[in-house]
Specification:
The chain is built from two helices and nine strands. The protein has helices at residues 9-18, 88-93, and strands at 2-5, 26-33, 38-45, 50-57, 61-65, 76-82, 102-108, 113-118, 120-128. The two termini are 21 Å apart.
């Protein structure tokens, strides 16, 4: 399990850049707990036999946009940390403080995007096999 906040921005960015599990992974399940300001994503990557969770805590902004490309809305093309200053005018207008927040952008093959401004992210790896003894099944 790995936990990241604004203080670990560099480490989170390195993790996302070096993690080969994100590209081509499928978002299997999404759960948003509004009262707790928490978004949970179950992610599967059949290419690497990896199943893991992203738990995004302390959500300040959550915005989904619809793309117009041919492609799967559940398959992640890229997941990046972006410059929080993009949201400064919005957060100022809505009396929010984003000084200790992170901004993450999910881009899907369909062109859909998920923009999340948050305080902390927890990444848990549920299952991985290197020897092929128990590969994930697409029905998981």
């Amino acid at each position: 399990m790995a936990r990241f906040t604004k203080e670990q921005t560099k480490e989170l960015n390195e993790f996302l850049c070096n993690c080969c599990y994100i590209h081509d992974a499928k978002i299997d399940r999404v759960m948003y707990k509004q009262r707790e300001k928490e978004l949970m994503l179950n992610i599967l990557n059949f290419n690497f036999n990896v199943k893991f969770n992203l738990i995004i805590c302390g959500i300040e902004i959550l915005l989904a946009t619809k793309g117009n490309y041919f492609g799967d809305s559940n398959t992640i093309l890229s997941l990046t940390l972006e410059d929080i200053s993009y949201w400064e005018s919005f957060s100022h207008e809505h009396n929010m403080s984003t000084s200790d927040s992170l901004y993450m952008l999910f881009q899907m093959f369909s062109g859909d995007e998920l923009h999340v401004v948050f305080k902390e992210i927890i990444i848990t790896e549920q299952y991985k096999t290197d020897d092929g003894s128990k590969p994930l099944k697409k029905s998981d």
